[in-house]
Each structure stands twice: as structure tokens, then as C-alpha cells.
Amino acid sequence: METVLLDDVLHRFLLERAGVRGVLVRLGSSWREVAGRADYPEAVATLLGQSLAASAMLTGNIKFEGALSIELKSSGALRLLFAECTDQGRLRGLARWNDPLPEPLVVSDLPGAVMAITIGHAERGQRYQGLVDLNHPNLGEALENYFNQSEQLPAKILLAAHGEHAVGLMLQRLPGEGGHSAADDEDGWNRIEHLTATLGADELLNTSPEQLLYRLYHEESVRLFEPRPLVFGCSCTRDRVESMLRSLGREEVEAALEARDGEIEVICEFCAQRYTFDRIDAEHLLSASHNAEASTTSQ
Ligand SMILES: [Zn+2]
User: What is the pLDDT of residue 288?
Assistant: First the structure.
């Protein structure tokens, strides 16, 4: 029998009997677009794919405007990792690293590693930011801990990625939902945690969302909500590149023009879109600085 795998979707579901809600994200071409932007070593690609799936997964149960991003910075071999999902389900991401990478690549071993989750509009300054404690063996457990430490509902999170797909599964225990007593809830949560713990990365990656949910939770009366599409997409614009150049200042812009025969070329690292500026463009954007100054933001 041929298996139809539904890619680039976010599924929300409810396990009614156990009082648990869940999000299952499966990325296909959206992830391959991101993965194909650089010659990522396997360990970096795996972490980037997991982060991208996680960024989409974390949007599943929140109402927000703008974007949700996961950003890791360190002074070690993995210098930067960034994954983002917008309120429209548009995904982008990238990583920067230095060879040689430690083997295995463990985030908690990277010197000075800091991971932040940011939600909102960068331009409008409406942002919520939380730091993720990285002292956990993998990203899924670090995010689980983030939920368990905060005011949020306790969570169980699994993440997996390879060259073709990236998958994220999150389960959250609902408090006293559906008229259950606290003892019933406790039991339901334990049961779901147990079922979920049997799931390996291969099964997570190679099973379609509906099959996966059926296989794991068929005795739990799964209620599936309308799936949401996810797609690769970048939010770069010529305006944003202009304000970036403006923030460099006249001296640097002129030096760049000088060095490149009178043309500045900026290539977006997320989507490879090219933006070019000649001397006239540059003069225009530098002289327009008086009214743009107020809205200039750091990226
Ligand atoms: Zn772009």
C-alpha cells in the first residue's frame, strides 16, 4: 500500500479521554528549502531542522502577531542558529558554524550558549522574549523544561530531522478539562507520556501525521482540528535592507561602493534574494535618513 505523506502542515489535536492537547508539525519542502541554502554538516542540519520544526510547533497553541523565533548563539563552533515561523505559517532559518565541529555536537557543551524564544513584531518593538535553559541532552528536553519552568502547561516534546523531513510533536496536559478529576488527569497524562515515549526518531520522520496519531493514540479518542499549511518564506524587503545600510552610516556605505565599482550588492542569507544599490540609490537612502531614523531597528 502506498503511503501518502502530508508535508508542510501543522496539525492540532485533542486527546479527549486523557485531557491532553497536542501539536504535530511535519516539514517537507519548506525544510528542504532552508537546508539547501548552505552546505550544512549533518549535525548542524539536524539541529536546524529540529529548531525549524519547533518554531512552527510552538505557534500551534498560541495567538500572536508577527513571528516566533528560536535563536541560539554561542562562542563555540556553532556560532548561530536561527529558526522562525510567522503567524502566516511562513518558515525560514539559517545556521553559522566553524569547522571542525565537536563530535557529537551537543548544544549544552557549546561555550557561552544562549537560546532565546522571541514572539512578536521586531519592528514595532512588541516582543516577548524567554530564555531556554540549555542544560539538557537535546533541544526537545530543553524546550520541555522551558514549559515546565514557566507558567505554561507541562509539555512533552519530541523533535527529529534528517535531509528530507523535520518533525515536531508536542503534548500538553490540560488542567481539569472535560470534567475529569485531578486523579483521572494524572493517569491520562502518564498514559500519554508512556505511549509517546515509545516513539523513535525514525518512526516520527517516516510516518504520515494521521497514521502516527492513530498508531499512538487510537484508544484515546483523537480529535483532529483543521490542519494549517506551512511554507518556506522570507520577510526580507528592499526597505529593510535600506535601513540596514543606513544604520551602517555614510562612511561604510561609501567605502563599500568604492570597493565594489560603485555598486553594493546585498544577498539575503535566508532566501538568496539579491538587492543592489548604485551611487544614486545610496545617496538617496543616506539622505532619507532624517525621517527613517525613528523607525530604524536592529535586526
Ligand atoms: Zn530573504
Answer: 75
Ligand 1 centroid–CA 46 distance in Å is: 22
- Could you tell me the distance, in angstroms and rounded to a whole number, from the CA of residue 274 to the centre of ligand 1? 9
User: Does 238-294 carry CATH code 3.90.1280.10?
Assistant: yes
Report the candidate in 199, 219, 274 with the shortest Cα–Cα distance to residue 241: 274
The rounded radius of gyration (Å) of the Cα atoms in the chain is 22
Give the domain ranges of the chain: 9-232, 238-294
The alpha carbon of 242 and the centre of ligand 1 are apart by a number of angstroms equal to: 13
CA of 232 relative to ligand 1 center, distance in Å: 10
Identify the CA nearest to 114 among candidates 98, 93, 135.
135
In tens, the pLDDT along 238-253 reads 999 999 999 999 999 9
Residue 221 has pLDDT above 80, yes or no: yes
What spacing in Å lies between the alpha carbon of 77 and ligand 1's midpoint? 25
Distance from Cα 92 to the centre of ligand 1, integer Å = 9
Residues 58, 45: contact at Cβ < 8 Å? no
3-class secondary structure, 223: strand
Q: Given CATH 3.40.190.10, say whether it is the number of domain 9-232.
A: no
Crossing angle for the helix pair 209-217 and 182-197, to the nearest 10 degrees: 120
pLDDT tens digits, residue range 27-59? 999 999 999 999 999 999 999 999 999 999 999
